[in-house]
Each structure stands twice: as structure tokens, then as C-alpha cells.
Design brief:
Blueprint (H helix, E strand, L loop, with lengths): L2 H25 L7 H21 L2 E4 L2 E3 L3 H11 L1 H18 L4 H16 L1
Antiparallel strand pairs: 1-2
Helix pairs in contact: 1-2, 2-3, 2-4, 3-4, 3-5, 4-5
């Protein structure tokens, strides 16, 4: 396993957590009028993090890669509910469709299933 890839993916997730805590002061999510904006911005931001994790995949052994696309979708879905989880899944699904390939349907189903499970 290449530890550089693992450290890079961890750094991306930590940057997302820092953004989450910083954005809390900007949007005051306890205010019902600002709640939809909070969910929208965080869902799309964590969706962008999912795409970054798809791009910076982790090499587990020679020529075998995994990506952590479901981690940000699960995190934001668990903390902010199904709306943010679904919004986080959209960029990841769009990027997977754009990539194409034999695993496209499986990748899409996985991300959508994680978003649904995190919202529950």
C-alpha cells in the first residue's frame, strides 16, 4: 500500500471537516430560513470532496486502486440527513457517468445506496 495515497485521501477528508466547522458560523443552520442553503452548500461541497477522492485514489497493491467516494457521502448524510447525502451523491454519480467504463452502473448504485443508508 502506498502510504502517500492514503495520507492524501485522509487530508482531503480532514479539509472537508474543517470546511464543515467553518461553514457552521457562516450559515447558522439552526435558523430554519437558512437551513436549505446550509444543506445545499454542504451537500455539494462534500460531493466535490467525493469527486476529489475518486481522482486521488489509493493504490492498495501493484495496479489495484480503490477510491473513497462513499466516505464523504456517508459522513454528510449521517450528520445532515438524506437531502445533503443525495446532493453529495450527485457530483460523484455525474463524474462516474462521465468516466464511463464497465463499472459505471455498480459505482452509481453504490453511491446512491450509501446516500440512502446515511439518510436513514
Amino acid at each position: 500500500m502506498d502510504l502517500h495515497h492514503l495520507l492524501e485521501a485522509g487530508g482531503i477528508v480532514v479539509a472537508g471537516v474543517l470546511f464543515y466547522s467553518l461553514a457552521y458560523g457562516w450559515f447558522e443552520p439552526d435558523d430554519p430560513r437558512r437551513r436549505p442553503l446550509w444543506v445545499g452548500v454542504l451537500g455539494l461541497a462534500w460531493g466535490g470532496i467525493a469527486v476529489l477522492l475518486m481522482i486521488s485514489r489509493i493504490e492498495t497493491s501493484e495496479g489495484v486502486f480503490v477510491d473513497g467516494r462513499v466516505i464523504p457521502v456517508a459522513i454528510i448524510g449521517l450528520f445532515e440527513g438524506w437531502g445533503a447525502g443525495v446532493l453529495a451523491a450527485l457530483p460523484a454519480v455525474a463524474y462516474r457517468i462521465w468516466l464511463g467504463g464497465s463499472g459505471t452502473v455498480a459505482g452509481i448504485v453504490t453511491v446512491v445506496a450509501v446516500a440512502a443508508a446515511a439518510g436513514v
